[in-house]
TrEMBL record:
Pathway: Carbohydrate biosynthesis; dTDP-L-rhamnose biosynthesis
InterPro entries (alphabetical): dTDP_dehydrorham_reduct (IPR005913), NAD(P)-bd_dom_sf (IPR036291), RmlD-like-bd (IPR029903)
GO terms for biological process, alphabetical: dTDP-rhamnose biosynthetic process
Top-level lineage group: Bacteria
Organism: Leifsonia shinshuensis
Protein keywords: NADP, Oxidoreductase
All residue ranges annotated as the RmlD-like substrate binding domain in the record: 1-278
Protein name, entry field: dTDP-4-dehydrorhamnose reductase
Leading EC class: oxidoreductase
Length: 295
């Protein structure tokens, strides 16, 4: 299979490139400097000749999006639509990565894939719009893969920030009143490859590791995985960390669509974190700690 990856230099994009190559697929890896997803003609030209297109590009500065929503919309909505149009014209399947932020966070049980979108911040609105535009542009070939709380070797993320803070702070306060699903980009990349290799129907899938945790619980687990004392992590609440963009308090996603498609959901976040740590994902000395223009 010949696969185009847009946003290929982000932490997910890097793992996608590795996973696709490991499965014997031919990868065209394009970063922000190689492909401007807001340019439809460029997207169509890039997708030509490919069997699949994976969109890992995104405007991910959640707080900045509150005052730069037009810029976020251009990438997260129009860029997503452009790649869907490009995939349709190429006769290719299209996977675009979305987010738990398309929901309001008021639920008390995991969000099903068909739950109506109801974002509470600008970033979520732009990602929800991207989902709708992509499905409209290429309905028979679009796969929306919603993810959350990503961490990986190739970019800045919460897990690596915790390890970094441990080097300069005796204790670290982390919110305990927001629940979600820590998700390793290595696992998500493998799940996307499995989706592309299957005959699963188009539609929405939730690409998160199984289970749930608060940021506080995740931070304690990161400390333990990194060989640090987890008691150095102390709980606090969201009122202590007021941000420009409101965050959903509950971001747990259900995984029913995988079973319906005959595919296994992703493993538990605890098992994924342990494996990621063994592979050096939390090692700041050997990993690049910068954002790279993708997820």
């Amino acid at each position: 299979m010949r696969v185009l990856v847009a946003g290929a230099n982000g932490q997910l994009g890097q793992d996608l490139r590795k996973a696709l190559a490991a499965h014997g697929h031919e990868v065209t890896a394009l970063g922000r400097a190689d492909l401007d997803v807001t340019d439809r003609a460029a997207a169509v030209a890039a997708a030509s000749g490919h069997d699949a297109v994976v969109n890992a590009s995104a405007y991910t500065k959640v707080d900045d999006a509150e005052t730069h929503e037009d810029e976020a919309y251009a990438i997260n909505a129009l860029g997503t639509e452009n790649l869907a149009v490009a995939a349709a014209e190429a006769g290719a399947r299209y996977v675009t990565v979305s987010t738990d932020y398309v929901f309001d966070g008021h639920a008390t049980e995991p969000y099903a894939e068909d739950t109506p979108r109801d974002p509470i911040n600008a970033y979520g609105r732009t990602k929800a719009a991207g989902e709708e535009l992509a499905l409209a542009a290429h309905p028979d070939g679009t796969y929306i893969v919603r993810t959350a709380w990503l961490y990986g070797a190739g970019g800045a993320n919460f897990a690596k920030t915790m390890v970094k803070l441990a080097g300069s702070h005796e204790t670290v306060s982390v919110v305990a009143d927001q629940l979600g699903q820590p998700t390793w980009t290595g696992d998500l990349a493998e799940q996307i490859v499995a989706l592309l290799e299957s005959d699963a129907p188009s539609g929405v899938y939730h690409g998160t590791n199984s289970g749930q945790a608060s940021w506080f619980e995740f931070a304690k687990a990161v400390f333990s995985a990194a060989g640090l004392n987890p008691d150095r992590v102390t709980p606090t609440d969201s009122a202590t960390f007021v941000r420009p963009a409101p965050r959903p308090s509950y971001s747990v996603l259900a995984h029913g669509a995988w079973a319906k498609a005959g595919l296994a959901p992703m493993r538990s976040w605890e098992a994924a974190l342990a494996d990621a740590a063994r592979q050096g994902v939390l090692d700041l000395e050997t990993n690049d700690d910068t954002q790279r223009g993708g997820r």
